[in-house]
Amino acid sequence: MSKAFLLWWIQIVTISFATFLIYSYGWFEKLYDADQTKISFIIIAIFLASTIASGFLSFRSTPNSHAVSNYIWFASETMVTLGLIGTVAGFLLMLNSAFDNLDVSNVENVQKVISNMALGMSTALCTTLAGLVGSVLTKIQMVILENNLDNE
Q1: Max Cα distance, the chain (Å)
Q2: How far is it, in rounded angstroms, from Cα 19 to Cα 31?
Q3: Element counts in the chain: helices (H) and strands (E)
Q4: What pLDDT digit, counting tens, does each position of 75-109 carry?
């Protein structure tokens, strides 16, 4: 086994432990409820695919490893882009229906408007967070992988 694969494995164990904690605290359910667009889960799926691909590259270096690593770098940037798209979508959700039927004299109406605005804001923030975290973790994997493959 190569040093790159062992370092990748340490990352996987750490990410798995963090995922277990996130699941234990019910944060996946909260994310599902907060993200109206569900872009966060697309980002998570891209992250999982990128992690598996980087693990494969670290275990077995092939002649087309450079081409595959380019796709992983692209996936990392795609996660950030999807996070930003989710941010814009969340703001659009927040502002689209926020002031349609606003009656400031009716307290229940104002509470409903604030609730709708909070839902849009939670979508914006959750997708941004998922995109940034997924991208950073993927970039860490790729930098470690490429540094170790260059030194072999």
Answers
A1: 71
A2: 13
A3: 5, 0
A4: 999 999 999 999 999 888 888 766 666 666 777 77
For 65-91, give the DSSP string: HHHHHHHHHHHHHHHHHHHHHHHHHHH
How far apart are the two ends of the chain, measured CA to CA in Å? 12
Q: What is the pLDDT of residues 8-51, one digit of tens each?
A: 999 999 999 999 999 999 999 998 988 889 999 999 999 999 99
Amino acid at 16: S
Tokens of 124: 């914006």
Domain boundaries defined on the chain:
3-151
Which residues make Cβ contacts (< 8 Å) with residue 3, sequence separation at least 6? 148, 152
Q: Are the C-beta atoms of residues 149 and 61 closer than 8 Å to each other?
A: yes
Q: pTM for the complete prediction?
A: 0.86
What gap in Å lies between CA 74 and CA 54, rounded to an integer?
13
Q: What is the CA radius of gyration of the chain?
A: 20
